[in-house]
Queue: 2 jobs
Job 1
Amino acid sequence: MSEIVLLEKIHPTAVAYFEQHGFDRIRQFPRALSGQELLDALGEADAVGIRSNTHLGAEVLQHLPRLRTIGCFCIGTNQVDLVAAAQAGIPVFNAPYSNTRSVAELVIAQAILLLRRIPEKNAKAHRGIWDKSALGAFETRNKTLGIIGYGNIGAQVGILAESVGMQVRYYDPESKLPLGNARPLPLQQVLEQADVVTLHVPGGPGTVNLMNRERLAMMKPNSVLINASRGGVVEIDALDAALRDGRLAGAALDVFPHEPRSEKEEFISPLRGHDNVILTPHIGGSTEEAQANIGQEVAEKLVRFLTAGTTRSAVNFPEIAHQAKEVVSRILNVHKNEPGVIARMNVEYASMGLNIVAQHLQTKGAIGYAITDVDEPVPPELMRKLCAAPAVIRCQLL
Ligand code: NAI
């Protein structure tokens, strides 16, 4: 039975899932490891589960010939050398959508609080000021929510917003199926019509300073801006100016261009001190439920790979949709993506008199991955021949 090593206090839902599926060789370490300690911990591991603080670079991976798969129990995968892992035949999995609901709920809460001017009332009450004025405080009902980026989180925010009576408009450069009352519009029209604008775009060069001075100026007077996507998406000085001018009535930011690496580092931002701005320390997706979902989601992907070799949603590897192993033998073959590899492999099967009952092949960049099912035992000499072929990176009999 495969050995699974879990580092960095991964949520107990993961262990529960592994155990339910018959994996009982699980070793756990409460913190990230590095250097020789890491190599010692992973020497016998078939699968490793990490969070963001364990670094699995090319030099670590080359010392772990037994390791078959890596699970990042988080969203990001920067801590793993994905190319080196793929070249070693190791698929890497993560949990990109486990915290979608958590972010969406926070955004709706922020929209309600900002429209009611609660951040200012709260700040004033803390200073002993009893401001009961209804001026500028609005219900969400019949207000327009403008979503920039109608992906997983954006679409979920739209559904929740409709349930509190909002009209949903969105902009996305890709054509997306509108859910509920949501309607697509050009970016400028979303900004001009929305009482609340919320950003749910990916990071990267295409979205840096998406909300710059010009776009902030397109927003309806007294509207509010929410950003729980990536820090670079809003030009912070321009937002600061729009808030100081009173053009925008408020903002909520969960992500920033420069975020402290730990509690010990001070959070510096020109937005500190605005009573009408909600600042949160990148916790949009940080809930108990999201952690539990991550534990379950990544464990499920690892179990599927370990038991069936399937790789749906691997971040660095050819993806083969899940099908349980229901045959006597399943052969996993990771190889260089070059002509003739599968033809030569199938000649070997035929020469041994083995009948292929199903075969699935996918390629991604330099890597090809084939899963072959045969309904009889595969002799060790065939496995030796298959594994010795020059294009083969890794092969295994399940
Ligand atoms: P997703 O990939 O499902 O959706 C992103 C959408 O943005 C896609 O529909 C895409 O077509 C669209 N898009 C791309 N470029 C665009 C542009 N220039 N203008 C408008 N739309 C554009 O991503 P998901 O899962 O919805 O995540 C959205 C963002 O939320 C990501 O940046 C992610 O990193 C961030 N996030 C933040 C969290 C937090 O704790 N605050 C937690 C989880 C995700």
Note: The pocket of NAI is lined by residues 75, 99, 103, 148-154, 171-174, 200-203, 206-207, 210, 228-230, 254-255, 282, 284-285 (CB under 6 Å).
Job 2
Amino acid sequence: MENKKDILILAIESSCDETAAAVVKNGRMVLSNVISSQIALHTLYGGVVPEIASRKHVEKINQVIEEALGQAGVELADVDAVGVTYGPGLVGALLVGVAEAKAIAYAAKKPLIGVHHIEGHVSANYIENPDLEPPFLCLIVSGGHTHLVLVKEYGVYEIIGRTHDDAAGEAYDKVARAIGLGYPGGPKIDALAKEGNPRAIAFPRAHIEGAPFDFSFSGLKSAVLNYLNSCEMKGEEVNRADVAASFQQAVVDVLTGRTVAAAKEYHMERVALAGGVASNSALRKAMEQECDRHGLKFYRPSPIFCTDNAAMIGAAAYYEFCKGIRSGLDLNAVPNLKIGER
Ligand code: KG4
Ligand code: ZN
């Protein structure tokens, strides 16, 4: 039996290539976290094929939700609200989760809460860190986003840094493709980099004039491509592990350096990591060391809560629920939803 005052959220996530559902108690306790990954399917094409993603979501979503309720040992009637990612993401993929959540909310007479996917990534930090409360600084690094945000209150964000071109995850994926590792690139570079020398090749660390907390990764990606081309022209064999390690070191240096500088500038004592790239082993280690060195408290979700999942959506939905925020049954998918927007 759940305590009467406990708030249970059934959360649904389908913005990209994972069909996911979770039951989260009081925003921080994950009762179930079911993820049906489509990675194997998209690997055949070297990236996510939107049409295939939508079709797979339709096929899996009911089963995933049933499993999430079953593993949590709760009935739909016990749930206090349904939270769902409504943007940003692939429109066809988002629509599957949104339509499903609306149908459940309507049929079971439950409040509906539309959640911003990236705010979900940030909220993943609440799950295993009962002491983490705003304000804190969060570095968001996913396939589509690279942002430094001040989390001022629950659900209140101020963006203080952003990428001018590629997202960090996108850079990982493109470089992985260039060195023949395939999709998804991030975890493969992470693994291969362990066998390489991070100081072997001097790849650039881009600074943006007048924007000390912004990022740019397209020059780094081009530098890797140029390096590979010049090796080919000279007939030299490429040490892929060195390329992976040196590229990763450039990304990690920039991300950690700018995050620590921003924490100082904005007087933040707590720093958190969010998004798929937050599961990167080198980034986690470097960020921990740098935060330690500068007297900052460092938080990061376990890898399973870094990449796309519904537990993080349940955590974000809980804080919206507590503020009385509800979505109407006219909730629609918003593929380019901006952070902090409703
Ligand atoms: O947050 P996420 O699961 O989906 C988006 O919302 O975009 O992030 C996916 C991104 C991909 O670019 C993937 O290559 C990257 O996160 N990623 C990693 C690692 N695991 C996933 N990048 C570096 N190292 C990893 N271990
Ligand atoms: Zn994501």
Note: The chain has a mean pLDDT of 96.
